[in-house]
Task: structure prediction
Amino acid sequence: MRIDIITALPSLLQGPFSDSILKRAIDNGLAEVHLHDLRNYGSGKHRQIDDYQFGGGAGMVMMIEPIETVINELKSQRTYDEVIYMTPDGEVFNQSMANSLSLKGNLIILCGHYKGIDERVRELLITKEISIGDYVLSGGELAAAVVSDAIIRLIPGVLNNETSALSDSFQDDLLAPPVYTRPAEYEDLKVPEILLSGNFGAIDKWRHEQAEKRTAKRRPDIWNKKHKTDE
Ligand code: ADE
Result:
């Protein structure tokens, strides 16, 4: 999988890909992430990438030409499955979107800034618009990092134990059950007896029940939807 991220603030995105699981995935050749500084495609001496909005109003709007130039340059080199725009008015990101994006070969992610991007970028160049939740960030960079992380960790071989992505919260429409490590007793709090029993059938059953209880209590929206679908 290859992800090309177009941003006016590439330094904001360097951190998330230079540590831990994402770094290992990149070092092992399982994922490629390329950052493209939009400023390099800006016009004139000042490499302009934004301008005042027609009709008046506060906030600058990102211009179409620099964005189109970088996207066309990338598209001339390979075929892309999606050109994604990170925006609070996009489709809200969830695990099933992460699952399907993790099966793609090449993705472009465009990070918005300022007041937004010229609407014609969305009409002409964008194939998918994603929000990471109902709140407004200063730009799309952190959202792009969130989406990239959720996708890359699902690529086979990225996690040491492949089953650990399958047992994540939200796979199966269930939150993950509680987990414990040593000590078996901390102050008055004991690890549930069943986890020390060595009876793995019973442990699996307990974990599933706990996941169901937790989902019903904390996320009745997911729980009710799951039950409607299962019926
Ligand atoms: N850009 C600003 N806010 C955002 C959000 N909530 N999701 C995706 N991109 C954004």
Q: What stands out?
A: The domain at 2-152 is CATH 3.40.1280.10 (Alpha/beta knot).
